[in-house]
Structures are given as C-alpha cells and as structure tokens.
Specification:
By secondary structure, the chain is α/β, with parallel strands linked by helices. The protein folds into two domains: 48-148, 3-Layer(aba) Sandwich (Rossmann fold), CATH 3.40.50.10860; 156-244, Rossmann fold (3-Layer(aba) Sandwich). Helices cover 39% and strands 20% of the residues. The chain has a six-stranded mixed beta sheet with strand order 2-1-9-8-6-7, sandwiched between helices. A three-stranded parallel beta sheet has the order 4-3-5, sandwiched between helices. α6 (156-167) packs across α7. The longest helix has 23 residues, at 23-45. It is globular.
C-alpha cells in the first residue's frame, strides 16, 4: 500500500480541495490486524503461517521488494523463509525448489519475485506454485477464480487499492471507474475487483485514443501503466478519487 500515491478531490465553496489518502497509516492498521490474526492462528495451531519469498538474481527493485516483505512478515509475527538464488540458476533448479516449498508444511504462502532472468520461463514457474499457496494470485486457478467470481487468492496490489478506496469511503457501486493499464499483475485484476463491487469499469492503456476524455469522465482512476506523469492533474474531475500504483520518480533537469 505504501507504494501507491492516492488522493481524492472535493469541492468546497467553489474551490477544489485535494485530500491525500494516508496509505502509511492504513498499512499500519492492516499490519496490526494481521498480527492479531497470527496470534489467533498460533494459539490454535501452535505455529505461525509461513511465507516463502523466492528471488533469483540481484535486480535492485526486487531486492528492495523482497526485503520489505520479509520485514513486514517479522513485524506481524509471520514465519518467513527467504530463498535468494544466483542469476545463473537453472529453471530445473528453481522448479525443484518450488516443488519442495509446495510440500513444506511450514510454508503456507509462496511468493516468486518477478521479473525472473530471461532464461527462465516465468509461466512455468508460476504454474508450478500450489494454488493454495499462490499468495500473489498469479496462477491459472486463482486467475480463473477471480474471473468467475469464485473464492480464491486475490492479487495483493489490486486488493490493496480496494482497501484504500474503502478507507477513503469512496462509493464504488455504480461509479465510473477507469483502470489505466492492462497487466496481469495489476490492471486486469484491478478491473475485475472493481466489477465485483458493481462499478462501471473501463480499461485504458498506452494506445487508448483521447485518454484525457476517459479520465475526465471517471469517478475513480487507478493508474497502473508504469509511466510517470502520463495522467495530468487537469484531467481529473472534481470529486474523483485517484490511486497511483507504482514508484515512478520523474527525472528533473536543471
């Protein structure tokens, strides 16, 4: 959640006021809720839920993401198992590790950090993760469950966006929602989660004609396209809520 910038605009005495949604405060509450849940599980089962995080190579962003996830696990009392493999790891070795994690009773969730090195078939890796341990919700069974409205594990980032919208008391039923981006990680599942909440959803992308017009009609905008400053503030209509997914930092020249 803390990687997403979010705000809502409201009219006050004919002036537009921007209200920042405090993602850090919301994330702290979520972690506190999880910590209480972990205590309850430990009381019943005698052991905490465990997350295995698998990283291949030294991609700088991946190093930060996995480190933060392991830190969050420890803060919430979750068990954590970090597996860092060298860039040259073969696909067979990675699949072997995942098979062992699938069978490990201490591991209740498996997260494979993407991107993987080019010589590894990411689809085969994702497909091998046991559906009940696929905490990213990327595997075909969980994707199908989301599409069909059935129970399953939902992708984390879109779920976090829904939590932000709920915390901001953003009405979703009947609202015009625009998702800018169509990736399997954020854009597509975000659109499906908004549909579950009875929003009227449009998906836009880098080739959408007149993106400004689409943004200007939306009550909710979720930007998940990976390009800084693609959406201009002047396009946002008063009263709209905007979630900016990502960590883009615009370059500045003097």
């Amino acid at each position: 959640m803390r990687n997403a910038a979010a705000f809502t605009t409201v009219r006050a005495r004919a002036k537009e006021v921007t209200v920042i949604i405090d993602g850090k405060a919301i994330a702290a509450r979520v972690r506190a809720e999880i910590a209480e849940g972990v205590k309850a599980v430990v009381g019943r089962a005698g052991m905490p839920p465990g997350l295995a995080a698998v990283r291949v190579g030294e991609d700088p962003a991946s190093v930060i993401y996995v480190r933060n996830k392991i830190k969050a696990c420890k803060e919430a009392g979750l068990g954590s198992f970090e597996h860092v493999l060298p860039e040259r790891t073969t696909q067979e070795d990675l699949l072997g590790l995942l098979s062992r994690l699938n069978a490990d009773r201490r591991v209740h969730g498996i997260l494979v950090q993407l991107p993987l090195p080019k010589h590894i078939d990411a689809d085969r890796v994702i497909d091998l993760v046991a559906p009940e341990k696929d905490v990213d919700g990327f595997g075909p069974r969980n994707v199908a469950a989301l599409t069909m409205g059935r129970p399953g594990l939902r992708p984390c980032t879109p779920s976090g966006c829904i939590r932000l919208l709920d915390e901001a008391e953003t009405p979703l039923q009947g609202a015009r929602a625009l998702v800018v981006g169509r990736s399997l990680i954020v854009g597509k599942p975000m659109a499906l989660l908004l549909l579950e909440r009875n929003a009227t959803v449009t998906v836009a992308h880098s080739r959408t004609r007149d993106l400004a017009a689409e943004v200007g009609q939306a009550d909710v905008v979720v930007a998940a396209i990976g390009r800084a400053e693609l959406i201009k503030g002047a396009w946002i209509k008063p009263g709209a809520t905007v979630i900016d997914v990502g960590m883009n930092r615009p370059s500045r020249t003097c």
